[in-house]
Specification:
It is a single chain. Strand 1, helix 4 and strand 2 form a beta-alpha-beta unit. It is built from eleven helices and seven strands. The radius of gyration is 18 Å and the shape is globular. The protein is an alpha/beta fold. The protein has one domain: Rossmann fold.
């Protein structure tokens, strides 16, 4: 987990923030469902907010949204994208260090908990949330079982090996879900929806992910990566457009101040 957290620094990059715009959204219905779980709609905290993917949606539902991220380029991007939402406070800080002003009725973390020190963050949340507050974890903005899945796995294996890494989806999933031991989980839901995106934007989206940032790939390898992926996806596109499903995963409950032993 230490190595995984160190990789989070790769988001402190203007190019990564720019490419983030090509990520698929979370399902609109997942936000509607989440509103029904929250008793009061005053203050919400979005940890690891990035450019406001969740915070921007929450702004229309809550009096104040505190969007916390350690990447200044991400926050600047968020401020530009959501300039009309004057109730979002953009806070440049690590989740572990941020000075939080609750009590929060809702805390959201979107595919970012694996970058955080759970032993610091979750006990901290216990202290700043309302007694009936909800902690919601959201993830899932990539293709869900697309037609090119088999070729995609082969592509990932080959490129990861070039960097001395191995494709191990199960181990990565375990690392991402490790935060659950710091929660009393109340429920889980998945929301599937159809998404359409150009091949060019799908390829660009990959450079918003820590593994495939252009800073890590380098100019020459980055160009090869883009070319190979474009060629892989070509047969699955219609007029340059890909159509695929995206599955938003929502888990909610309350944070714990101590670890749940397996």
């Amino acid at each position: 987990m230490i190595i995984v957290r160190q990789h989070g620094t790769r988001f402190d990059d203007t190019e990564v923030a720019r490419h983030y715009a090509h990520r698929a959204p979370y399902a609109a219905v997942s936000y509607e469902f989440l509103q029904g779980l929250v008793v009061q709609h005053r203050y919400v905290l979005d940890l690891g907010s990035g450019p406001g993917k969740i915070a921007g949606e929450m702004a229309s539902w809550f009096e104040r949204v505190d969007a916390v991220d350690s990447s200044l380029p991400m926050l600047r991007r968020g401020q530009a994208l959501h300039a009309g939402s004057t109730n979002i406070r953009w806070i440049h800080a690590r989740a572990e260090d941020a000075a939080l002003e609750g009590p929060y009725d809702l805390v959201t973390i979107g595919a970012a908990a694996h970058w955080m020190d759970h032993a610091v963050v979750f006990p901290k949340l216990v202290k700043v949330m309302e007694k009936d507050g909800v902690l919601a974890m959201m993830d899932g903005d990539g293709p869900h079982q697309p037609p090119w899945q088999a070729a995609w796995v082969v592509f990932l294996r080959r490129w990861l090996e070039r960097f001395g890494d191995k494709y191990d989806r199960a181990r990565f999933g375990d690392a991402v879900a490790a935060y659950e031991r710091w929660m009393d989980v109340a429920g889980r839901r998945t929301f599937l929806f159809d998404h359409r995106q150009s091949v060019a934007d799908f390829v660009a989206c990959q450079h918003s992910r820590a593994t495939w940032t252009m800073a890590r790939l380098g100019e020459a390898a980055g160009a090869r990566f883009d070319q190979e992926l474009t060629e892989l996806l070509g047969p699955f596109a219609h007029d340059g457009q890909l159509e695929f499903s995206v599955q938003t995963n929502l888990l909610w409950g309350t944070p714990r101040s101590c670890l749940v032993e397996p």
